Amino acid sequence: xxxxxxxxxxxxxxxxxxxxxxxxxFDNNIVDLxxxxxRVTKYGDFRxxxxxxxxxxxxxNGGLNQYSFLITLLHEIAHYKVYNDxxxxxxxxxxxxxxxxxQTVVPFINSGVFPQPLEGVFRQHMQNPRASTHSDINLxxxxxxxxxxxxxNTTNLEDIPNGEKFAFKGRVFEKGEKRRTRFMCKDMNNNNxxxxxxxxxxxxx
Length: 205
Ligand SMILES: [Zn+2]
Prior knowledge:
Layout: H1 3-10, H2 19-28, E1 32-36, E2 44-47, E3 57-61, H3 66-86, H4 95-110, H5 118-125, H6 137-144, E4 154-156, E5 165-168, E6 171-179, E7 182-187, E8 193-197, E9 201-204
Parallel strand pairs: 1-3
Antiparallel strand pairs: 2-3, 4-9, 5-6, 5-9, 6-7, 7-8
The chain binds zinc ion.
């Protein structure tokens, strides 16, 4: 991909001040980036090459706000780096990944890409990053402040009464029991169950 094309696409999703560093990474590594529709159970992922896709691939949900998108992208870049250095032998969120994530994030934090108070909260998170960035309640509350489409009908899933229906990412769910930081919810379209973060922004219906 040419730099001009990369900049044109990625600038819709990440803070402008992060783009040149991201381009440097994608220009110097053989990895595919796919921006996807919003998935209920994950924000992004990293996939090894397989018979269908011969390149390693990073995917990120396109509906995330610019800071959530960037943090998710850096999380997945760290998975790529572990894959590149060790191939398949390391645990997905083990010590190698934590180190790779910290090394990936530092230049972005230090160049002022994240506004306060997000920068401070993210720095704290990065001292011992977890498998899911969004399971850190402090960080998630901070990231939610930057969400685009908040209206009067929008609320946190934790504020919906149990057994009530709500809309999330264009689908209707019924709220069920709590499981640590998430709620078990039933997709009314196909009866599949998903665990959704207690702080997910959902629509009252
Ligand atoms: Zn991960």
